[in-house]
Amino acid sequence: MPTSERTIGRLSLYRRLLKQAVADGQENVYSHELGARAGATACQVRRDLMGLGCAGSPSRGYKVRALLERIDLFLDAPDVEPVAIVGVGNLGRAILSFFQRRRPKLQITAAFDSDPWKVDRVVQGVRCHALADIERVVREQEITLAVLTVPAGAAQEVVDTLVAAGIKGILNFAPAPLRVPLGVFVEDMDLAMSLEKVAYFARGRGGAPRKGGK
Amino acid sequence: MPTSERTIGRLSLYRRLLKQAVADGQENVYSHELGARAGATACQVRRDLMGLGCAGSPSRGYKVRALLERIDLFLDAPDVEPVAIVGVGNLGRAILSFFQRRRPKLQITAAFDSDPWKVDRVVQGVRCHALADIERVVREQEITLAVLTVPAGAAQEVVDTLVAAGIKGILNFAPAPLRVPLGVFVEDMDLAMSLEKVAYFARGRGGAPRKGGK
DNA sequence: ATCACATTGTGAAACTAATCACAGCTTAAC
DNA sequence: GTTAAGCTGTGATTAGTTTCACAATGTGAT
Lengths: 214, 214
Known about the structure:
The structure is a homodimer. By secondary structure, the first copy, chain A, is an alpha/beta fold. In chain A, the strands form 2 sheets. Chain A has a 7-stranded mixed beta sheet with strand order 5-6-4-3-7-8-9, with helices on both faces. In chain A, strands 1-2 form a two-stranded antiparallel sheet. In chain A, helix 7 (about 150-165) links the parallel strand 7 (about 145-150) and strand 8. Chain A has helices at about 5-25, 30-40, 40-50, 65-75, 90-100, 135-140, 150-165, 190-200, and strands spanning about 30, 60-65, 80-85, 105-115, 120-125, 125-130, 145-150, 170, 185-190. Chain A folds into 2 domains: about 5-70, Winged helix-like DNA-binding domain superfamily/Winged helix DNA-binding domain (Arc Repressor Mutant, subunit A), CATH 1.10.10.10; about 80-195, Rossmann fold (3-Layer(aba) Sandwich). At the A-B interface, helix 1, helix 5, strand 8, strand 9 and helix 8 of A face helix 1, helix 5, strand 8, strand 9 and helix 8 of B.
């Protein structure tokens, strides 16, 4: 059981690269190939795959199709998972359009916004509801995942509502740390923080930590 | 010298929280307070601050103002750092508007897009240039940081241009691993990967890693 | 004064993640 | 057939990060 946040992230990345490989007609792949494309070492790739129970042949490497199937089985839920998005501002709409052309297993099926003008509008094929309807809609559609793109000031209040409605995972774009009960997973996407990090390391202070491809 | 990617991220977060504290008129702060707000342990906060050379008093904790000053000095460059954004689609515009109302030290000053209709337009107060002008504009404005919001297919090509123009740090939203020479720092913001991660851990498989506030 | 208390600063321990190193296969060439 | 080469699978090692534990310190109450 290879359950670490880092590993899961890499598996998701491998999957995308493998899909590309399949599209290119590639049948087999070596750990060092996949590693190069993913920015990881061959060793790490092998260990990640080993954790999944994947086996390769010393001469031909891993079978791309088999690998994909195994990763899908591991990462995806059996059924499609509906996702809610709260906050249909610029960022919210961008993310909505970004996700609507991919991810068959993760589909945004409900949007929420505090702006009465947006309520009942359909944005990118998704109906926008009032914040007050979060609990009802989330329960009706049995949604467990949410993307949060509201201003920092409103974030915690919305989160409490989402959690009360049964949400188990949140992708948080609001620049504010969220307090959630145990059992709810939060992944922070903090734009400001990330750009500051880039600025810091671009200055060359930190000895340029990894990512230096060939 | 506390130079680890994780630590830098936390310092950036502390800074934001401390600014809030100053705005609220708070003069002193204990490590456990800051830790609670940041989702970290008191211990970790103390170690992070220790690395910066900050000292607190056992009775009053740390002086908020002094802390802020010290973190600013450590994280920020002496002057304003101009930032370029390449790709003025939905996501690009959202990020543009997000950053334009904050970060005095990091300012987006140039935008680039392949769409001729957008070239020479002014978006969110920032002039949009053609991709062909990247090298010239980046050199003219001495830009070293870039935000990348182009489709995956165009990413590597744009990155090569940016690097050739002297860019040292990239915040990458394109769902593709970038190859860059040593000395160039890349931070990936992979929306699809992050949402998959959230979906996985929301299922409760990974024993709910951290983030469980009170 | 003195005592009890809460907090800082930090060496050491525990834990986690990444890398090394090499045995064991599998194929291809001669 | 035998040999050489290159890859996988994995125990052992190393590196890095977080947490523990506690001495040292300043504060306020008695």
